[in-house]
Design a protein that fits this description.
Layout lengths: L1 H16 L24 E9 L3 E2 L2 E2 L6 E10 L2 E10 L13 E15 L2 E12 L12 E10 L6 E7 L5 E15 L2 E14 L6 E3 L5 E5 L1 E11 L2 E4 L2 E12 L2 H9 L16 E11 L1
Length: 290
Amino acid sequence: MNTKKAIITAILALTLATSPIIASAAEDTKPAENKQESATVTGEIAASILSAYIWRGQELSRHSAVIQPSATVSYRGFSANIWGNLDTKPYAVGNERYSANYTETDVTLSYSHKVGIFQLGCGYIYYGLASLMPGAADPLDSQELFVSVGLDTILMPTLAVYKEIDHYHQWYATLGISYTFALHEKVGLKLSGNVSYLLSTDENTYPKYDGNGIATAEKFNNFHDGIISVSLPLNVVSTLTVTPTLSYVFPLSEEAKYEMRARGLQGAFTPSGKDSSSFLYGGMILSFSF
């Protein structure tokens, strides 16, 4: 963990040294959305306060608020983002009580370029992972490469493909759309939807689960999770936005239902006793841009 912290500290120091102020886009969003190419340094700082942390259909917190700070700087299509997750009340199966726990720090380096109506992107993500419960063994960190292509049309469809290159041996693809209704010059209503497909290339690190929530000797290869979100961005001033948000995450296939339930955090005597295969959560995002 010391090496991980040293890497993160170095990246933050470099970012601060090359910009008069650090900025960020909120993970999800992870990775942060790329801004248009600019000859000046731009960016955002943001913090999300949410009722749960759900990532790619996996329940990573339960009955606990999470705080997710992030910071992004961008220059001529290049972006650097750092994002974290603080679980204010880690879930315990029994009667244990845990103090707040910092569970994850991600670093994303990306490049985006617009060609006509196409928005093309690529990048690298480093996931610095810590145990969900204080004192437990940390999971192995993860690294991904990704490419994306979006269309500058009415629903802004965007296809992104992620390839894990470290320990977990999988491909993950998403297709998303979004639309924002202008309710007022300072208020919008944003609706978005996202579907995903997960292809495991190793049954040991990412297996398929059966109906009883038991890992099999097969690889997962099917549609995975869907997300429907609604948010209400309020532009308080030109650089400050407050966004209430609500999301519903659900499985897109029976295999995904078994997998999402098996990976849920609910304590149960047998894996089949868990009930977490879909999730409703929300909260508030504060962001400052320059």
